[in-house]
Structure to design on (375 residues):
């Protein structure tokens, strides 16, 4: 079945007999037992709730996994993921990551005894692996520099070394990229972004192929308690119904905006993986079926960046991405403010870098807005 059909119809779980087309919101924290030692399959919503279960089955089907676990935010999913590791364990992570992920690793996980090395290339990943390494963590494309990593090539390394490969698939979503089919073990999402798609709900997802790993994550979720609520599960299910068509349209507009920005005199560089000159274009074309709706660009002068942020009208100056409203972000002051300055600048996240999440407005209106903001 095509992924767009799975998006619309969700999973094949049915919880009511009325024929309701939309999954019901089961606003119940607890469930009555039919007898002693008997369960309807639902006991207490921290463990599982039917609306959340429906969402999890849907996302597992989209990613080609066997199970998914839904959390109250992407960071809650990451926090639960880190509970798989113990003091002394080591993780190799790609060196361009969402700033909040870096903050979790360096301020929370490290305090709990897990150590990290950061790698910028395939050779670096191989070199940083030690006997204590348990996992490799990548984002592809990365936030905000849009760097691309060859998932299948990293999977070959992690398989040989018996390590977990974790891929943050927030930017491309299963509509364009399915890391589990390329050898990843765990896929992570900030469902706040494209899955929800309307800038109105936080959520996070972990998706796996291996049932034993899924059970560990479920145990962590019910024990630490950051599962997604039934209301928010419903909103993410509803968002997913239009995911495929949104991704297609957002990608078209992102390409148009990237091409237009490329020709402007105040712009130094445009980072969009759908431009053939992007260094990750070839790998992206091979491992994904689309390039997505995210781009970043570097202007020649800091003042230009500030005036764009202050002058955009249709596009909103705000954090987050992936929703129907276009958002422009200043990574230096927002998403990546917690990165040490020298590392931030070495990665290109400086006062001249802006990140643009293209929404569903007409492409001409987005370009006209950028044009008037740049003048
Ligand atoms: C790539 C990526 N991963 C994870 C997260 C964290 O997700 P959330 O904001 O839903 O906690 C974000 C948030 O911006 C992100 O961009």
């Amino acid at each position: 079945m095509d992924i767009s059909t799975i998006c619309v119809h969700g999973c094949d779980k049915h919880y009511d007999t009325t024929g309701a087309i939309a999954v019901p919101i089961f606003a119940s924290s607890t469930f009555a037992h039919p007898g002693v030692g008997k369960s309807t399959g639902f006991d207490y919503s921290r463990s599982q709730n039917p609306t959340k279960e429906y969402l999890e089955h849907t996302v597992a089907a989209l990613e080609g996994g066997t199970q998914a676990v839904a959390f109250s935010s992407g960071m809650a999913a990451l926090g639960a993921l880190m509970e798989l590791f113990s003091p002394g364990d080591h993780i190799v992570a790609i060196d361009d990551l969402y700033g909040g992920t870096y903050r979790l690793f360096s301020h929370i996980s490290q305090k709990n005894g897990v150590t990290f090395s950061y790698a910028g290339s395939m050779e670096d990943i191989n070199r940083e692996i030690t006997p204590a390494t348990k996992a490799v963590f990548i984002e592809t494309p990365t936030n905000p520099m849009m760097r691309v990593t060859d998932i299948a090539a990293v999977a070959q390394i992690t398989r040989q070394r018996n390590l977990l490969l974790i891929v943050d698939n927030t930017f491309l979503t299963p509509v364009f990229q399915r890391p589990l089919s390329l050898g990843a073990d765990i896929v992570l999402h900030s469902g706040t972004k494209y899955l929800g798609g309307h800038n109105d709900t936080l959520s996070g997802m972990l998706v796996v192929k291996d049932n034993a790993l899924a059970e560990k994550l479920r145990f962590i979720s019910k024990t630490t308690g950051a599962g997604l609520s039934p209301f928010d599960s419903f909103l993410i299910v509803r968002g997913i119904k239009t995911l495929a068509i949104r991704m297609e349209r957002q990608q078209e507009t992102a390409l148009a905006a990237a091409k237009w920005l490329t020709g402007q005199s105040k712009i130094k560089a445009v980072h969009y993986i759908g431009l053939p000159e992007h260094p990750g274009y070839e790998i992206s074309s091979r491992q994904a079926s689309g390039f997505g709706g995210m781009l970043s660009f570097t202007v020649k002068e800091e003042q230009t960046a500030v005036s764009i942020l202050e002058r955009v009208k249709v596009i909103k100056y705000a954090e987050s991405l992936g929703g129907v409203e276009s958002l422009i972000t200043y990574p230096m002051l927002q998403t990546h403010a917690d990165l040490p300055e020298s590392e931030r600048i070495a990665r290109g996240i400086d006062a001249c870098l802006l990140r643009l999440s293209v929404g569903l407005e007409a492409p001409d209106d987005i370009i006209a807005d950028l044009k008037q903001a740049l003048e």
User: Anything to note?
Assistant: Residues 73-75, 98, 100-101, 139, 143, 168, 170, 190, 192, 202, 204 surround pyridoxal-5'-phosphate (CB under 6 Å). The chain has two domains: 3-241, 246-374.
